[in-house]
Amino acid sequence: MSLGPGGVTAEAPAGFRPPPYPYERLNPLRAAAAALEGGMVDLSVGSPCDPPSPAVLTALASADEGGATRGYPSSAGSSVARTAAADWMQRRLGVGVGPGGLALCIGTKELVAGLPAWLHLRDPSRDTVLYPALSYPTYEMGALLGGLRAVPVPVDEHFRLRLTPDAVSDADAERALVLWVNSPGNPAGALDDLAGAAAWGRERGALVASDECYAELTWHGPPRTILGHGGGADGLDGVLAVHSLSKRSNLAGLRFGWYAGDPSVVRFLREVRQHAGFMVPGAAQRAGAAALADQAHADAQRETYRGRLARLSQIMAAAGVDAPLPEGGIYLWAPAPDGDAWALTARLAQQGGVIVSPGEFYGAAGARYVRVAAVAPMERLELVARRLGA
Fold first, then answer.
1. Which of 38, 276, 286, 350 has the most CB atoms within 10 Å of its CB?
2. CA–CA separation, 42 vs 68, rounded Å?
3. Is 15 helix (H, G, I), strand (E, B) or coil?
4. Helix (H, G, I), strand (E, B) or coil at 327
């Protein structure tokens, strides 16, 4: 309420009202779990708990030797940081994207949230963001924050993106500005047909943005990317890959990510983001380059996650929940035995002191499931096991 002319009370304009942040809805259950002896074990958010590579800490400690913390850093990223990202993509994914064909972002969440609005500036004739019906909530939120249409694309029984002729209407396809894919997927860990998605987007003139932040944590086969699947020089036309060090290198707090792909899109984003002042701090750029060069640490972290996922699957089974290992990623995706995900979430919190996420946080398609993140040390998982009788 506000005062209008003459002191008359007037209604405030009805603008965008942000929905409740999903994970805040778990706060009452966090209090119940924390009351148990030994405290709460929070597996609701995919926030890493393990230490980063010693090389990263060394790089951070010596960052100012070259003045990296004093002046404004490059918005696109230093040549050292971009070369490190390009070398990693060649070494791990087999794609040749030179340092000039990619740019840094401040983690990847801000890029995911901002990309639709920037693409709409580039092509105002399209106004629709397509995203998997079961997925990371920020794909939908990015459309809403940009004042655009958010249209979910169905997933199949294995939670893979379904791009069959009946999945997306011709009208939505014609208006599509971007199609998001995420493989390995969050929350279900499924591996999508990236080549098929790239072809679908090229046929319809829609950019396909591939969130590949879990690529190093692919359990079925080698890590994969949407880049290189045909369609012009080096297979980059009409596609954009988004990468992060948050999960690979336990550096969610560093906010180091990058995007690579269609040269015209990368060039446009670099220019827009430079005007807006998006910059990864210089110290973080040096540390990110060090992390990308340390493959041994990433490989060791893979095995840590693999062991936790296996143990969590056993613990959930002892609690009467079938939680199969995923094709990729750091989450178990488990159906609630009676279909009531919130009831299962409450039981696990009250009896096991463990906080998991109800599947509805990731779309209506997940309403009967819970997501369990393998982000606590093994001794904390064993505490949950004892409480649940595993």
1. 286
2. 36
3. coil
4. coil
Question: In this predicted model, what pLDDT tens digit does every residue of 71-120 receive, in sequence order?
Answer: 999 999 999 999 999 999 999 999 999 888 999 999 999 999 999 999 99
Question: In the chain, what are the domain boundaries?
Answer: 21-51+296-388, 54-293
Which residue stretches of the chain are H helix? 27-34, 54-61, 79-88, 109-122, 138-145, 170-175, 194-204, 263-276, 282-293, 295-318, 341-352, 378-388
Spatial neighbors of 144 by CB under 8 A, at least 6 apart, are 16, 150
Q: What is the largest CA-CA distance in the chain?
A: 71
pLDDT for the residue numbered 100: 87
Count helices and strands in the chain by DSSP H and E runs: 12, 14
CA–CA gap between residue 121 and residue 118 (Å, rounded)? 5
Give the integer Cα–Cα distance in Å for 225 and 172.
Answer: 25
Among the listed residues 255, 259, 304, the one whose alpha carbon sits nearest the alpha carbon of residue 283: 255
CATH number of the domain at 54-293, out of 1.20.1090.10, 3.20.20.140, 3.40.640.10, 3.40.228.10?
Answer: 3.40.640.10
Q: Which two tokens stand for residue 370?
A: 């819970």
Element (H, E) at 241: strand 239-244
For the domain bounded by 21-51+296-388, which CATH number is listed?
A: 3.90.1150.10
The CA-atom distances, in angstroms, between 56 and each of 277, 285, 348 are 25, 10, 36
- Mind listing the pLDDT tens digit for each residue in 326-385? 999 999 999 999 999 999 999 999 999 999 999 999 999 999 999 999 999 999 999 999
Q: How high is the pLDDT of residue 99?
A: 85
Q: Which residues of the chain have pLDDT under 50?
A: 1-2, 4, 231-233
Instruction: Fill in the DSSP letter of residue 245.
Output: S
pLDDT given at position 1: 44
Domain pair 21-51+296-388 / 54-293, same fold? no
Joined together, the tokens standing for residue 332 give 């178990």
CA-CA distance, 156 to 319, in Å (whole number)? 27
